[in-house]
Amino acid sequence: MASNRQRRLLAFSGAVVMALTVAACGGESDNTANDKLDTPECAAYKDYTGIAGETVTIYSPIRDAEAGLLEQAWKPFADCTGVKIEYEGSGEFEAQLKVRVEGGDAPDLAFIPQPGLLEFFAKGGKLKAAGDKTKTMATQNFSPDWLKYGTVNGTLYGAPLGANVKSFVWYSPSLFKEKGWTVPTTWDEMIQLSDKMVAAKIKPWCAGIGSQDATGWPATDWIEDVLLREQGPDVYDQWVTHAIPFNDPKIVAATDRVGSILKNENYVNGGIGGVKSIATTTFQDGGLPVVQKKCGMHRQASFYANQWPKGTKVAQDGDAFAFYLPPIDPAKGKPVLGGGEFVGAFSDSAAVQSVQTYLASPDFANSRAKLNNWISANKGLDVANVSNPIDKVAVGILQDSGAVFRFDGSDLMPAAVGANSFWKGMTNWINGTDTKATLDFIEGTWPK
Amino acid sequence: MNFDFTAEAPKLMMLLYGVIAFAAVVGLLLLVLDVLPARKDRWIALGLLAPAGLLLLVGLVVPAIRTMVLAFMNADSSEFVGLENFRWMFTDKNSGMLPDFSTTPVQYGVLLSTLLWVLLVPTVSTAVGLVYAVMVDRSRFESFAKSLVFMPMAISFVGAGIIWKFVYEYRQEGADQIGLLNQIVVWFGGTPQQWLLDGPWNTLFLIVVLVWIQAGFAMVVLSAAIKAIPADIVEAAHIDGVTPWQMFWRVTIPSIRPALVVVLVTISIGTLKVFDIVRTMTGGQFGTSVVANEMYTYSFRADEKGKGAALAVLLFLFVIPIVIYQVRLMRRRRLEGAR
Q1: Which of residues 408-437 of A touch B (CB under 8 A)?
Q2: What chain B residue is nearest to A443 in terms of C-alpha separation?
Q3: Are A309 and A192 in a shared domain?
Q4: Which keywords does the record carry (chain A) (predicted)?
Q5: How many helical (H) and strand (E) elements, i.e. helices and strands, does chain B have?
Q6: How far is A334 from A338, CA to CA, in rounded Å?
C-alpha cells in the first residue's frame, strides 16, 4: 500500500492544477489595442468605432496573389480601426465551407460566389441577416439586380464584393493585326472569322475546363452565355428555376451550338490537343495558347486577365485583349453573363458587421480596384481607379443600366445540379457523350 | 513564412489548457477511485475505461448511428424516405453506380471501379512487396534497397496524387512533354496519350499510385516476417537440397502466412477508403470515381445528405466482412497461442 500515498498525491496535484487553470481562464478580458481613428489619414473610417483589438476571420475561394491584393486593399481600414482581419483562401471553398459550418467552425465572414450556397446557409439559419448599416451601405451602392442575388425571402444577407463579366472572348490583338482580322460584332461574323483562322492554319478556339473538384464549370458558362443570346433572359430564368426542364429543346439547341465550336475538331483545341484535351486542361491553362499565337480565341471571364504570364500586355494594342461575346439575335439585346462573391456573415458581432459594411463601401471597392485586376458592381467605383483596359470595359458594362445582366446560372441552380451534375455532365459531354444523353442525365438529377 | 510565437500564443495556451485539463481529469479520477469503498477492482476498471469509452461513444458510435439514420432520410434530413437512397443507388442510372454500356464513352460505374481498386491494390502491393523483400533479403544493399521502396510511404496520398498527376501530364504531339510517362513514350517514337481520360485504363493508372505507396508497407512487414523464420527450418530445407523455387513456396510462404494475411487485410481496408488520390488526380471525373469520393461529393457539395450517408453505409457494409475475417483470425491465433 506504499503506492497508495503516491497516487493520492498525484491526484491532489492534478486537482490543484485544474483549479489554477480555471482561475487563469477568467483573468484576461481587458483589451489594450487602440484604434487610430483620430488621425487625419483615417478620417474616412471614423464611423467604424469600438472594434479595435477584435479579430474577424474571413474564409474565401480567392487565393494566392489575388488574396494578397485583397489584404493590401483593406489594410488601411484595419490599421485605422485596429480590427484584425484573418484571411484564409481555399481551393476547395465550396465543399470546405459546409464542412466547417456544420462542424461548428464557421468563419465570421465568407466570400460566397454562389447565390445558391448563400441561400442554403440563409435558409438553414446559419447566416446572419445583414445589419442596418450594412444594408444601407449595400442599397446605396448596388443595383437591385445585384442585391436580388444576395437576398433570401426578402432579407438581405450579403452585399456583393467583386464582380466578373463572363461574356468575353480573349484574343491576341497583335495576331489579329498581323493577319488583318477584325473583331467580330455578330455571332455569324465570329464563325466566319473562325473559318478564316482554320484556313490560316491556326486553330480558332482553345479551352480548358479542369478545375480540381469543380471540373466542368467553364463549359457550363458557355451554355449559359449561348442560351442567353439565343433565347433571351426570360427563358434563361425559366431554365435556372426549372420552370422548363433541363433537356428542353431550347437547351438542346443552345448546347449543340456550343458543340459546333467546342466539339469541332477543326476548331479546337488550339495549342493543346484535340477536343478531349479540353477536359484535362485546367481552366487556368486553357487560354494561354492565345498569347503564344497558337489559338485564335478563348471565351473566358474578365478575371482571366490575372492568368496571363508575367509581362503580357493586356490592352487593345497588346498581346491579349478581349471582346464582348457577340449577340446571336439582335432582338434579344446585349446580354451579359456574370458573377461575383457575396459577403455573408456567420456571426453578428459589431466588428464583423463593421467589416461587412466596409466591404460594401465605395472606399473598399476603389482601394482594391487601384491595385489592379479587380472590379465590382459597386456604383461608387470610379472607373479612373481601374487601370486595366479590359476591366474598364467590364465596369462600363456593369454600370450600364441598359445591358441585360444575368448571374451565372449554375451558381443559382440547386447544388445537386449547379455544383455537381451540370459539371459532371458537361465533362462527359466534352469526353464524347452526346447532347441528348447529357441533358437527360442532368434533368434526371434535378432534386424533386 | 516566419513563425511568430506571440501571435500563436492563444493556440499554445489552448494546448497547454488541454494538457492540464487532461492531467486534472485523470488525477480527479484516481482520487475518487482511491477513496471509494468495497468492490474496488470493478470500480477501478470502470473508471479507467470510462474516458476512452466516452470518447469512442462521442467520436465513433454516435456519428456512425447518426449516419445510418441519415441514410434513410431525404436530402436535407427533414423526413424519412425508407430505402429510397439505396433504390437510387442501384436502379437509377443517373447515380452512376452501375456500369452502363449504352453510353459513349462507356460508364463503368463507381461500384466496378471500387471493386477494381479493392481487388488489385492489396494483391499487387503485397506481391510486389513480397517479391522485393525476398530478393533483397540478406543482399549487400538490403537497407538501401528497402528504404527506396519504403520512402513513398512517407508521402501523403494528396502529395503522391500531385506527383503522379505530373507524371501523367499530357501535351499535344510535337509540343514539349512535361509528363514523364509521355516523354518516355515520345522517346520510343510513340504519340503522347491522355492517360487519365479513357476508361477503364485511367482507373488502372490511378491504382498504380496506391500500389506505389503500399508496396513499401507490405515489403517492410513481410521482410521482418521472413527474417523471423527459424534458422533451423531454413537449414533443414537446405540439407534436403531444396531449390529456391521450392524454398519460396514450401518454406517462406507457409512460415509468413499470418503476416501476409495482416498485410492483405490492412491494405484492403485502406483501399476501400481511397479518396485522396482520386480526388486529387481526376476529381472523380472520366469514370474514375469510387464510393468514398461519391460519398463526399453528395454529402458536402451536392446538398444530398441522404445519398451521401447511404454511400457511407454501403462502404461500411463492404468493410464488415474484412473486419469479421480479421477478428476471427485473431481469436483463433490467440487460442492457438494459449495452447
Answers
A1: 414-416, 419-421, 424, 427-428, 431-434, 437
A2: B94
A3: yes
A4: Signal, Transport
A5: 16, 0
A6: 13
Chain B contact for A367 (CB, 8 A cutoff): no
Question: In terms of domains, do A238 and A277 share one?
Answer: yes
- Kindly provide the ipTM of the predicted complex, given to two decimals: 0.83
The candidate with the shortest Cα–Cα distance to B170, out of B190, B195, B205, B198, is: B195
Closest residue in A to B88 (Cα) is: A445
Domain count for chain A: 2
Instruction: Report if residue A282 sits inside a domain.
Output: yes
Interface of B with A in 33-72 (CB under 8 A): 34
B109-338: CATH class: mainly alpha
**Chain B residues in contact with A21 (beta carbon < 8 A):** 17, 20-21, 24
Judge whether A100 is closer than 8 Å to chain B, CB to CB.
Answer: no
Tell whether A9 lies on the interface with B, counting CB pairs under 8 A: no
Same domain for A399 and A417:
no
Helix ranges (DSSP H) in A185-327:
187-199, 217-240, 249-262, 277-280, 283-286
Q: Which residues of chain B does CATH 1.10.3720.10 include?
A: 109-338
Q: What is the pLDDT along chain B (339 residues), one digit of tens a residue?
A: 456 666 677 778 888 999 999 899 888 888 887 777 666 777 778 888 888 899 999 999 999 999 999 999 998 888 999 999 999 999 988 888 888 888 777 888 899 999 999 999 999 999 999 999 998 888 888 889 999 988 998 899 999 999 999 999 888 888 888 899 999 999 999 999 899 888 788 999 999 999 999 999 999 999 999 999 999 999 999 999 999 899 999 999 999 998 999 899 999 988 988 999 999 898 888 889 999 999 999 998 888 999 999 999 999 999 899 889 888 888 888 887 665
Give the three cell numbers for residue A320. 491579349
Count residue pairs from A and B with Cβ separation < 8 A: 123
Distance (Å, whole) CA A411 – CA B51: 46
